[in-house]
Amino acid sequence: MRFNMLKKIHLVAAVLFISCSFFYSCYYDNAEFLLSETICDTTAVSFSADIVPILQTYCYKCHSIEMADDQGEGYILETYALLMESTNGETLVDVVDWIDGGANNMPKSGSQLPACERALIRNWVAQGELDN
Ligand code: HEC
Question: Are 116 and 35 in contact (CB under 8 A)?
């Protein structure tokens, strides 16, 4: 009787362990949605809260209103309206994902943005490039 109980407990533990590691691996496969140990939440991306800080950090040194003529060949990524005049969401995704390569890789002469930042930009575009 006692022996059977133990066996049952072991069985339950084994099933739990296997399913947990299975789900964990599924979850972990979405590595680009993990940033350090923080989950990268791309479900409802906000232009002002998510995208502007990324552009500020990585792009304004060449693409702010002030710097664009000098450093960014006139492409302004500051304010929603000017960004939309200078470029569009699809191009933004291409340049940060290094789709076309070479001179079109942004940040120019820099390293590629972290996966989470790129996923945020991609999803902001997929969600309709809203001024939100
Ligand atoms: C060191 C300066 C510099 C930085 C930093 C930089 N860019 Fe650029 N960017 C340029 C220059 C110069 C061009 C003009 C085209 C070229 O020379 O490749 C350009 C062009 C662009 C274009 C227009 C591409 C086209 O073909 O229409 C986009 C969009 C763009 N950059 C986005 C970004 C984004 C997004 C970031 C930040 C993640 C960024 N850039 C960071 C210098 C920079």
Answer: yes
pLDDT in tens, 93-128: 999 999 998 889 999 999 999 999 999 999 999 999
- ω into residue 107 within 30 of 0, thus cis? yes
Return the ∠ at Cα 38 (arms to 36 and 43), rounded to 5°.
125
Binding site membership of 69 for ligand 1 (Cβ less than 6 Å) = no
> Which burial class, exposed, middle or buried, applies to 128 when counting CB atoms under 10 A from its CB (0-12, 13-18, 19+)?
exposed
Please give the Cα distance from 58 to 109 (Å, whole number): 11
> Could you tell me the two tokens for 80?
């929603």
pLDDT tens across 30-71, in order? 555 554 557 899 999 999 999 999 999 999 999 999 999 999
Do residues 98 and 115 lie in contact, with contact meaning Cβ atoms separated by under 8 Å?
Answer: no
Ligand 1: residue of 63, 69, 100, 125 to mutate (most ligand atoms within 8 A of CB) is 63
Which residue's C-alpha comes closest to atom 1 of ligand 1? Answer: 108
